[in-house]
Write a structure and sequence with these properties.
The chain is mainly α. It is built from five helices and no strands. It is about 55% helix and about 0% strand.
């Protein structure tokens, strides 16, 4: 019974989280995360998924068992809850991105953050948000990400130290005290 109970718990969290993501998307008018164009229909679908998952889980079999028997320990519950919620989020993002593929196609400027999901799907918002980082800088072949990394590395190096000499910095393999048995 433990194996089926684990799968049942994972499915409970997966379906319930998918329902909650739809409720949140409908409530906040995030059209890019909604499975249907109608807010009301999306909200009802989310509510049915959420309530249905709990009804199925608790009414199909007796589930009140101690972890010393066939029940789940707290660590197992955390792990399966995390996996089920994450899988529900991934499935929601994938399905709604495919469903809303053309949403926001003609919009030039999108708001930043989660507000972008009001006008476009997740993948389009993600790629538009990443383009400034992945695009090379004008007059430079480095990407903005490489430039930021170099600036961060330069900013964290203490050049005011009188003993600073970049040529004298030992590699990690030759630092004293490391690797000695």
């Amino acid at each position: 019974m433990s194996e089926s109970f684990v799968l049942d718990y994972f499915l409970l969290v997966f379906v319930a989280s998918c329902g909650l993501y739809q409720i949140a998307a409908a409530w906040n008018r995030l059209r890019g995360l909604m499975l249907f164009e109608s807010r009301g229909l999306t909200f009802v679908l989310g509510l049915v998924l959420w309530v249905g998952a709990f009804a199925w889980f608790f009414l199909s079999e007796p589930r009140n068992m101690p972890d010393t028997g066939a029940g789940l320990t707290g660590n197992e519950q955390f792990g399966y809850f995390f996996a089920g919620g994450g899988a529900g989020l991934a499935a929601t993002l994938l399905v709604t991105s495919l469903r809303n593929w053309n949403l926001g196609k003609g919009i030039d400027a999108l708001p930043t953050g989660l507000d972008a999901l009001r006008d476009t799907g997740y993948t389009r918002a993600l790629f538009r948000g990443l383009m400034p980082i992945l695009r090379p800088l004008p007059g430079d072949r480095r990407t903005a990400f490489a430039a930021l990394r170099r600036r961060f590395k330069d900013a964290t190096t203490d050049r005011t130290d009188p003993g600073y000499n970049p040529a004298q910095i030992p590699s990690p393999a030759t630092r004293p005290g490391e690797g000695d048995g």
